[in-house]
Amino acid sequence: MSPRIFRSPLPAIFALLVSACSTGPQVVVSQPLLEEADAPYDNILVVALFSSFDARRYLEEETVERLKALGISAVRSTSLMDTRTPVVAQTFIDMVDETGADALLLTQLTSYGAQQEAVDTRPEATVNYWPTYYYNVFAVELTEYVEPPRLQIAHSLVLATQLYSVATREPVWGIESISNFVEIEEDGLKYSVFEDEAEAIVRQMRRAGLVEIR
After folding, report:
1. Structural domain count of the chain
2. Which structural domain range is residue 78 located in?
3. Is the pLDDT of residue 10 over 80?
């Protein structure tokens, strides 16, 4: 997948969402897989609960893509709703019934912080010179172009992910992913933060035995 740039303002996205650093988020298992859980699961409804519908869709798409690569049937909730659909429990219960899912994977933001700092940009310069009437003496004109400072933002956030068994309607496993990364506000949020989060989630699901390669 080629790199993409997500250019919506960060405050809107992170009012209830996301991210990752270049090395990926650090993951802590908050709830080991229950011994009585009916894992592994074959058909998973993937749900991200953030304030931004686009951010929800991005993370769900990346997670579903990785589950399908393992041979697991997976559906993202944003494919069954739009921005006007009520984000309430009954909506997702209806989706479970519609898709025949045996598990629901839920990700939401639990903590977010940001620090901003103005960073000076590297100036550029052009130099023009020309000979004078004097031997080996040149006139020199130096012009510097200095851009205004750019806003550097250091992000710190925690996402909580739980997997619910449809049979028991109880959470059978959970993790927290902790991410710290720095970006320049004018450049926009890189799409890779969604890829990193999805990769970490599915990798942990495999390790826990929640899914198996088909």
Report:
1. 1
2. 5-117+155-208
3. no
